[in-house]
Each structure stands twice: as structure tokens, then as C-alpha cells.
Design brief:
By secondary structure, this protein is an alpha+beta fold. It contains five helices and 13 strands. Strands 2, 3, 4, 5, 8, 9 and 13 form a seven-stranded mixed β-sheet that branches. Strand 2 and strand 3 form a beta hairpin.
């Protein structure tokens, strides 16, 4: 299986640091991508997001057996416990996408980071829904949800004060271009700007805005049991295991 991963990330105006972080690891279990968006509230949530990414990627890259959702959930709990003392008020949204060699994909997420797919006509079809107060009781289209202030109030997240079980989705792996994004991307960029980012064109936002980030995964040759990963667009807020660094 061939996977090309490209990371796009731009700091916003709400904090002095970019609080979006991402990482990618590879093991005998397959390939795991993670995107974490540290909350703008509190001074250390950018570091918190980076620590979650590093611990998750390092753990995954050392796996010697197949990964099932239960094992992934146990590791998330261990990371939560490990980081509580260092980040007593830590809060972040996250999404993990695990692509296994046998052709299954697992998506684990909590908060407002989303997974989407490029469809025919260069349109983005979002495959997950954010966990926010604005859509907790009824489904709301993302373009409408982005305009509702209550979307910033999360019903699920990775917060230090309590562990909240994330949502898990499992599906068959199919070739395509997948997008793993923070809310600054799907909620604050226009549809044309979202496509511009994917094409590698520069996007500039006016006024106050959040960090926006996108991890693009182009998946091909799924019949090949060997994983060939090409990582492009590396930056300080993108982490890989040592064996993957190019």
C-alpha cells in the first residue's frame, strides 16, 4: 500500500503559538496518523497537543502485533493519566486514523477535528461529525455549524480533568485522498480556500482567526501488503517516528 502524507499548517491570531499538531507512525500493524488541536483557552495547550502526538506515535511505532480499537483506547487512557500532572488543565480535540495492512481503517476522534474525502468534482465530503453543543441534539450541515458560536463548546474532547471515551468508526480501506483537519480549516476557510490549500496554493485570512491545519493522505495500491510512506510538508508541529524521518 502506498500512502503519501502532506501536512499543511498555519498559525492563527488567537494565540502566540500554533496549537495544531500532527504525527505519523508505521509499524507491523499498519500506518497511524494523528491530528490534535490544543484549545485556545489556557497557556499550555499547544504543548499538551504536541505531547499527545509524540506519545501516541512513539507507542504505535514500537508495536509488534496487530492493533485493535480496544488496545488503542487503553493507550489513550495511559497517555491521559501520564499527562495529567504536567497539564492539569489540558484540553484538546483529536482524531486518529489507523490504516491496517489487511484493508481496514479505524477512525477514533473526540472534539472538532474531522476526517473528509475528496470526491468527484474536487468536492470535500466530510465523513465524521464534530462533537459540539451546537449539533448534539440534531444534525447540522457544516457550513451552517461553522456560523454558530456554540460549536466552540465541545461535548467530547481530550481534557485532563476527566477522560471522555472518543467515538470509533471502522470501515474498509479504499484508494482515495483523505483529509484530516482541525476546525480552523473546515470551519473558517471558505470552500475555495480549502481546495486551494490542497492544491498547495497560499491562503491568507483577514481578521481574527484560529490556527488551521490539514493532513492530506493519498492512498493507492491497497493490494500491496507492503507500506510505502512518503511524508512531505514537514514542519516543527509534525512528528514522525525516527524510522520515518526523511
Amino acid at each position: 500500500m502506498r500512502i503519501k502524507a502532506t501536512w499543511y499548517s498555519q498559525k492563527g491570531t488567537k494565540t502566540s503559538d500554533n496549537r495544531d499538531h500532527a504525527g505519523l507512525g508505521i509499524s507491523t500493524s499498519g500506518v497511524m496518523s494523528i491530528v490534535v488541536d490544543g484549545s485556545t483557552a489556557g497557556p499550555d495547550n499547544g504543548e499538551y497537543a504536541g505531547a499527545i502526538v509524540r506519545e501516541m506515535v512513539d507507542w504505535f511505532s514500537c508495536l509488534k502485533e496487530a492493533l485493535d480499537p480496544d488496545a488503542l483506547m487503553r493507550q489513550l487512557r495511559r497517555i491521559h493519566t501520564d499527562l495529567q500532572a504536567r497539564f492539569p488543565r489540558g484540553s484538546a480535540s483529536f482524531i486518529i486514523v489507523h490504516i491496517a495492512a489487511e484493508g481496514r481503517t479505524a477512525v477514533v476522534h473526540a472534539g472538532d477535528c474531522l476526517l473528509g474525502e475528496i470526491t468527484q468534482g474536487d468536492r470535500i465530503q466530510w465523513q465524521t461529525h464534530p462533537h459540539t453543543l451546537a449539533n448534539v441534539f440534531t444534525e447540522v450541515a457544516l457550513d451552517e455549524l461553522s456560523k454558530i458560536p456554540a460549536r466552540h463548546l465541545l461535548t467530547k474532547s481530550f481534557r485532563s480533568r476527566e477522560y471522555i471515551a472518543p467515538e470509533i468508526i471502522e470501515t474498509d480501506t479504499v484508494p482515495g485522498v483523505y483529509l484530516i483537519s482541525t476546525d480552523g480549516y473546515w470551519a473558517e476557510l471558505s470552500a475555495s480556500d480549502q481546495l486551494a490549500v490542497i492544491d498547495g496554493r497560499e491562503v491568507t485570512l483577514d481578521g481574527e482567526h484560529d490556527d488551521w491545519s490539514l493532513l492530506k493522505l493519498a492512498v493507492t495500491d491497497i493490494a500491496d501488503q507492503q507500506f510505502i510512506v512518503d511524508v512531505g510538508g514537514l514542519s516543527p508541529n509534525f512528528y514522525t517516528a525516527q524510522a520515518l524521518r526523511l
